[in-house]
């Protein structure tokens, strides 16, 4: 099946689609020995596609990798005995025939944001391994006085029931006027994966959470997605993630 060259290059992990377009425009891509033009298509299974005279690398993986913007009100689980909606309900038509997809890590029922789903168990284990210290960035609207002392505590480590949290990056993003009170939006970046960690950290310093959203996980962001939407990882994103395996 023929596809646009920039899509093929991105799927092979060469570059993003936009950067791949530039490679074609620069005359660095050939198809069956002919310099390709922007807009050209090729069949990656039958045509010889080269970049700077070298054949493209093989396809990255036969696995499925989806980036989901999880809405609040869904549980991060494959099934739920209580009959609640799960994140898999949002991606049913992309589950491989005869296979399964699994969420990488968890977001609690009321939390929205970035969630990776895949059938690549090795990558899942690598990304969740504590030694990898994968960054996770959250935004949260809170009620309560956000003092410099509280920000310092959050950044330096908060004592929870399961021990002291690791240092975090914390900053105040903005103030929002609510119906009855003013709320503060904070951004926190952590690399641990404790249960409900951000909510517990904020509660420990006297801040009540109105909403919580994960905006980034392992460098993957919500850009271009609305709650409930998903997309496949780009070749560039996948190449970067596979380096953790």
- H/E series: EHHEEEEEEEEHEHEEEEHEEEH
Class inferred from helices and paired strands? alpha+beta
Helix percent reads: 10-25%
Describe the global form: elongated
User: What is the β-strand count?
Assistant: 17
Mean pLDDT: 91
Quote the distance from N terminus to C terminus.
30 Å
- Tally of alpha and pi helices: 6
Q: Report the sheet with the most strands, covering strand number, pairing sense and barrel closure.
A: 9 strands, mixed
Low-confidence stretches: none
How much of the residues is beta strand, in percent?
25-35%
Radius of gyration: 21 Å
Report on this model:
The chain is of the alpha+beta class. The chain is 20% helix and 30% strand. It is built from 6 helices and 17 strands. It has helices at 5-11, 17-25, 121-128, 148-156, 197-204, 235-242, and strands at 3-4, 29-31, 34-35, 41-42, 49-51, 54-55, 65-70, 102-103, 112-118, 136-143, 159-160, 163-164, 169-177, 182-190, 208-217, 220-221, 230-232. Strands 7, 8, 9, 10, 13, 14, 15, 16 and 17 form a 9-stranded mixed sheet that branches. Strands 3-2-5-6 form a 4-stranded antiparallel sheet. The protein has a two-stranded antiparallel sheet with strand order 1-4. Helix 1 packs across helix 2. It is elongated, with a radius of gyration of 21 Å. The relative contact order is 0.17.
